[in-house]
Amino acid sequence: MNTKPESQSLAAWVEETREGIDSGRFPVRAFNDQAVYDLEQERLFSKTWCFLAHESEIPHPGDYVTRYIGNNNLIVARDEHGKIHANLNMCRHRGNVMCKAEMGNASHFRCSYHGWTYKNSGELVGVPYMKEGYEGRLKRKDWGLVRVRVDSYEGLVFGCLDPEAPPLDEYLGGFQFYLDLYLKHGLGGVEVHGPPDHWIADTDWKICTENFAGDGYHTPVAHQWGFHLGYFPSSGSTHSQGWAVSIPGKGHGIGLGHGPNFPPFGGFPDDLVAEMKQSLSPEQVEVFSRTRTAVGSVFPNLSFLMQPFSLEPGEIGVRFVTMRLYHPVGPGRMEMYSWCLVPKNASQEYKKEAYRAYTLAFGQAGTFEQDDFENWTKVTQAAGMTMVRDVDFPYIMGMDSAPDPEFPGPGHAVVPYVNDTNFRNLWSRWADYLAGEV
């Protein structure tokens, strides 16, 4: 684990990093460093919109889950009127954890220390010995749970710790166009299929965000068995076909991979395709019908992947969607949350097959997941070595790439799909937050 060098202040290092990104350089130190981790907690996670839950995880009044923004543990609950709230999971009396379960259903939360009781929307409603102990000095309305801003897009619930931050719609900045690829599978949208897998990994969260912002470069190497055995409906030589799309100045990015002779919307059942064509815009249909694999990240730490997978080599297989959140718990260490999203209106048979494909490929013990985490863990370990303190990585692919004038979607779209453009955009936004410029 590194600490900041005595010869250079952290502020100076951040400014040097910002300058280097423009020329395609990024420091190894960023991926495993105590001082960088602390600065991320202070300046990044305190200001960004971060994913909390999918609405289908808390469908009924009283349903709740506990989640994190940075090092802040939150209760995300649906009240009796159907409204979703997020509150800090801490009693206002002496700071005890209010809710010790990860999920459940409750109309109220009662502190196990002194018994203060709150509605699931956060209001303080019960104080033991109120008359005897406080003699009228305590006003319950002033001592509710600490509230967190919430907003949502197509079932995705986000929270923000900064009351002055721009609204979620502005924060996403047009990336909604691409989120619809994962969220508008039919007129009913999508839902989670079971609770998320989650586990602790000795991996820096930023490595994962970068990979899922469109790293098609690693696929023919890290997952080469998939090509050799015919599980990809393409080959290593054609894998670079497609677009890398970023939202300039926002940090979001997506890789949209094509495939030779790949059928439009391949891997989806016909009835679902018909609904998707109704729920998507003509421009979205044009892009998505040609997309074989879509791997994207919402800055800072939420990612999605959609691709077909088959147990029969050479077959198109079934489409699945995985949504994942990389929650940092220390320098070079994170808690991974991984969901499977399925279309609400799909048959139970399709949902079952999509979940099976997700589990085999990107579940906790999935074949692709194991490939990735082995590499990500080793990268994080190497980033903590003392000799790499002044070492940079090259991010120079596509430095001169011009936007594709024929691309119908928003953002900066370049070809080929194998490109570093999305990553330079990602790191520029990350550095802006660390520099206090956002």
Q: Can you give a write-up of this model?
A:
The chain is α+β, with helices and mostly antiparallel strands. The protein has two domains: 111 residues, Rieske [2Fe-2S] iron-sulphur domain (Rieske Iron-sulfur Protein), CATH 2.102.10; 261 residues, Naphthalene 1,2-dioxygenase Alpha Subunit, Chain A, domain 1, CATH 3.90.380.10. It has 13 helices and 21 strands. The strands form four sheets. Strands 12, 13, 14, 15, 16, 17, 18, 19 and 21 form a nine-stranded antiparallel β-sheet that branches. A seven-stranded antiparallel β-sheet has the order 2-11-10-5-4-3-6, with no helix packed on it. Strands 7-8-9 form a three-stranded antiparallel β-sheet, with no helix packed on it. Strand 14 and strand 15 form a beta hairpin. The longest helix is centred in the last third of the chain and has 17 residues. It is globular and about 75 Å long. The N terminus is likely disordered. Keywords: 2Fe-2S, Aromatic hydrocarbons catabolism, Dioxygenase, Iron, Iron-sulfur, Metal-binding, NAD, Oxidoreductase. It comes from Streptomyces achromogenes. This is Phenylpropionate dioxygenase-like ring-hydroxylating dioxygenase large terminal subunit.
Features:
alpha+beta, 2 domains, Rieske Iron-sulfur Protein, 13 helices, seven-stranded antiparallel beta sheet, globular, metal-binding, 438 residues, disordered N terminus, single chain, nine-stranded antiparallel beta sheet, Naphthalene 1,2-dioxygenase Alpha Subunit, Chain A, domain 1
Between the first and last Cα atoms, what is the distance in angstroms? 28 Å
Question: Do you know the CATH topology of the largest domain?
Answer: Naphthalene 1,2-dioxygenase Alpha Subunit, Chain A, domain 1
Low-confidence stretches: 1-7
Total strands: 21
Nearest-integer average pLDDT? 94
The CATH homologous superfamily of the largest domain is termed Naphthalene 1,2-dioxygenase Alpha Subunit, Chain A, domain 1
Which term fits the overall shape? globular
Global Rg: 23 Å
Total domains: 2
Let me know the largest β-sheet.
9 strands, antiparallel
CATH architecture classification of the largest domain? Alpha-Beta Complex
Strand fraction: 25-35%
Per DSSP, the total helix count is: 13
InterPro entries: ARHD_Rieske_2Fe_2S (IPR015881), RHO_NdoB-like_C (IPR043266), Rieske_2Fe-2S (IPR017941), Rieske_2Fe-2S_sf (IPR036922), Ring_hydroxy_dOase_asu_C_dom (IPR015879), Rng_hydr_dOase-A (IPR001663)
Organism: Streptomyces achromogenes
Protein name: Phenylpropionate dioxygenase-like ring-hydroxylating dioxygenase large terminal subunit
Family: Belongs to the bacterial ring-hydroxylating dioxygenase alpha subunit family.
